[in-house]
Amino acid sequence: MEQSQLLQFVPFSSCINHSFWNKYTEIKLDVDKLEEKGRSIWGYYSYIESQLSPFIEVDSTSFNIKGADLKGQLAVAGKLFNKNTIENFKDCDKMGLIKASGDEIWENIINGKCLKSPGLLNSFVVLSFADLKKYNYYYWFGFPAPSNVNLKLNVIEDISGKFNNDQMDQLYVNYSNLCEDQKHFFLVHKEHFEMKHLEAVVDLKDTLDQYYMAFSDACFDPKYSGWVLKNFMLFLMYYCDKLRGKQVDFLSFRVSRENGKISLLKSLLIRASLPEEFGKPEAWIGWERNERGKMGPRMVNLKSSIDPQCLAETAVDLNLKLMKWRLLPDIDLEKIKNAKCLLLGSGTLGCSVARVLLGWGVRQIKFVDNSTVSYSNPVRQSLFTYEDCVAGKPKAQAAADNLKKIFPGVESEGYNLTIPMPGHPVGESTLEHTKETVDKLRDLIVESDVVFLLMDSRESRWLPTLLGLVYGKLVLNAALGFDTYLVMRHGVRGETQNCSNNVKGFKMIKGNNLGCYFCNDITAPGNSLKDRSLDQQCTVTRPGISQIAGALVVELAISILQHKLGGFAPAYYKMQKSAEICEDSAVEDCILGVLPHSLRGFLSTFTQVLPATEKYNQCIACSDSIVEAYRTKGFEFLLNVFNSSQVLEDMTGLTEMYTLKDNTIMDMSDSE
Amino acid sequence: MLDWEEFSKHLSQMKSLSDELLDGWAILGKTGTENGAYLAKKVPRLFEEALLLFEYNVVYDLSYGVPKLCFNVFRTDGSMLQLNECIHVLGFDGEPVLVLTQMDHPVLQRPFFTLHPCKTSEFMDFCSNSKNPLVSWLSAIGPTVGLNLANEYSQCT
Ligand SMILES: [Zn+2]
């Protein structure tokens, strides 16, 4: 194809491997710090076919002293100018920077270094600035080439028009025997295809017309040459003055795989005329256009892949996603992640619960407690350390702080509050404070989705049980005895079109008919000095109990969150000893299985039972009369209760029933 | 099962063939030490008009005693594709991704998307007749994550 126009060159684009930024960040922080003087780096381009426009790649090995030795890749020496401020980055003289880089190429031509190392004819500059607080990386690549050197194009064609297959095979054999560090630019004899290193131009000065001027090309467009030919022209003009103004035959080597065979079929013969005028280039061009096609820098944010906190969050989420992909495709992880959890009590149970919640990917956890970390705590309470005791830190705050140390992605807060209790009179002087505390607790409950009752006293559970019910929250409860535990979900209130199925041998209790922690208790809190197996008067427990109960109460909460009926999910209570819930029972379960009402465990026999109890109409915490009293009288009602728990018994009619025997424990013995 | 010695041997063999084919596989890391070296290749690919760089690594998994294929995908600005983006690019949408996970690279100690090695051992037994089970395995599982070995590699199996 005869043409009489100027040869067009396809510029390089930049391609940055992620490992480059990792290394760059490391060097900036540990070595260069505020240094701006420029750092030598390596880039690489490939002469093996791809469907892409030519690019120079940089990666972590770019910072090595010696360039990587990779078959098919040619090294280019470049320079990185990292600025300390965005102003320095913006104000930097870009024309000057690329000219300096071009002048260096020129130096390497006239001082002869390019003769031995032809790769020095190529170069690149990177101007950069990193905002390492935001992980924003600004950068601009330049690939210097003289601005005013043009080639008048006569012919550009596939070499297959010129050579037969045997000749191309011979060319490839000779080419592959050439060292990688000589493949950038070299000479090929036109008759017998002998290849000579570039330095031979000096000796062959008078017979250069017998040679093709050859180069490895990163460009695969059959109509254009790659960028590297520009600087090659400059070199030829300098060393081969006889070629000035003359027609020169170039070979653009492009390696491709054709039907499984390495081939030079895509290589080009370019016949073009060098200009006559020659001198040191005045101006150099080559700054890369950005993604908008403008002459300007690019910016990339790498927070998600460099910021360790983001890496931790991604890893935690991914772990849960694997569970979803492999085992539970229908699990709603977002629902769990977004669940706001309030932990009332930051002791053994609170610590265990928080950790298991973290494991499930919960991100919002609030702690409430009224004591400080004591010396006996850290060995049993998994969020505390010895230092916390020495510092006398409030438990809620210490738990919140330490949870963040375990996983910075969590939003944890601690509140130092003493929850007001029935039968603990409020004096004139503490009235205002008590009111504030009640308001604060109410707000915390209103703001949360799931409330965990994990305190070490029975009385302190009364107020949050009531508030959780009134504000429609999921309330879960864990209580410990010496070697026993109780884990339960409180019943919810309201109506639902829940068409729950009965299962033979089981009694089914809908979620809105389930009882609360106090439903099984015949007496009001406040005078609980008598022994109870599951009461909180007993703070001596087998150390494993809190871990077991803490884990169970979270797993129960997660199951509720995954049940389509949520807190309305029914519980099944075994009526016949032989009855079993099996796969095909029409049980209203969730993807994680059945939802019991409560779990009672006995470490002395290593057994666990799953009793379910209906709400008790005279319950001192969840019965309608109590809820109604709070709704109408609010704090005034609460205050009466705080001052005398007898109020509760009177209101619910418990006083008259006081003589009745405690028959609720039957549930438990029955089901064994 | 494949012990480290065998793994390295097959690795070198594959690398030599790659050099002949100019296929771009390189051995990186420390070759002398156990579980110190791995095979790596970068594959540029256009996706929705953007250049993406697939970086494939064949590493050795000590606990399973099998090879493991890891990869990461980058844009030209160095940013890394997240797992969901990778899944989209690889055309997994809608299908459960049973074996793709993210694990720390045993040599680089950075997270890589990884085809989980739990089933690899069975597969390796299956291709025990191959002279290079590493290549047989890689040519079988590679395509699931966009890595297609050239037919010429079959000459060493
Ligand atoms: Zn109740």
Can you count the helices of chain B? Answer: 4
Rg calculated over all Cα atoms of chain B: 15 Å
Tally of extended strands of chain A? 28
Q: What form of chain A results from the Cα inertia axes?
A: elongated
SSE-based structural type of chain B:
alpha+beta
Q: Structural class, from secondary structure content of chain A?
A: alpha/beta
Strand order of the largest sheet of chain B: 1-2-3-4-6-5
Question: What CATH architecture of chain B would you give?
Answer: 2-Layer Sandwich
State the low-pLDDT regions of chain A, or none: 526-538, 657-672
Instruction: Return the string of H and E elements of chain B.
Output: HEEEEHEEHH
- Examine the coordinates and then state which fold CATH places here, giving the name of the CATH topology of chain B: Yope Regulator, Chain: A
Alpha-carbon distance between the termini of chain A? 95 Å
The low-confidence parts of chain B are none
Largest interface: A-B, 42 and 32 residues
Overall form of chain B = globular
Average pLDDT number of chain A = 88
Protein name (chain A): Ubiquitin-like modifier-activating enzyme ATG7
Domain Ubiquitin-like modifier-activating enzyme Atg7 N-terminal (chain A): 7-305
Family (chain A): Belongs to the ATG7 family.
Subcellular location (chain A): Cytoplasm; Preautophagosomal structure
Q: Quick summary of this structure?
A:
Chain A has 672 residues and is α/β, with parallel strands linked by helices. Chain A is built from 20 helices and 28 strands. The longest helix of chain A has 20 residues.
How does this model look, in words?
Chain B: This is Ubiquitin-like-conjugating enzyme ATG10. Chain B: Keywords: Autophagy, Transferase, Ubl conjugation pathway. Chain B: Pfam families: Autophagy_act_C (PF03987). Chain B: InterPro entries: Atg3/Atg10. The complex is a heterodimer of chains A (672) and B (157). Chain A is an alpha/beta fold and 672 residues long. In chain A, 31% of the residues lie in helices and 22% in strands. Chain A is built from 20 helices and 28 strands. In chain A, strands 21-20-19-22-23-24-27-28 form an 8-stranded mixed sheet, sandwiched between helices. In chain A, strands 3, 5, 6, 7, 17 and 18 form a 6-stranded mixed sheet that branches. The C terminus of chain A is likely disordered. With 157 residues, chain B is of the alpha+beta class. Chain B has one domain: Yope Regulator, Chain: A. Helices cover 26% and strands 30% of the residues of chain B. Chain B is built from 4 helices and 6 strands; from the N terminus they run αββββαββαα. In chain B, strands 1-2-3-4-6-5 form a 6-stranded antiparallel sheet, with helices on one face. Chain B starts with a helix and ends in a 16-residue tail after the last helix. The mean pLDDT of chain B is 86. Chains A and B meet through strand 2, helix 1, strand 18 and helix 8 of A and helix 1, strand 2, strand 3 and strand 4 of B. Bound molecules: zinc ion (ZN). The site of zinc ion (ZN) has 9 residues of chain A, from loops.
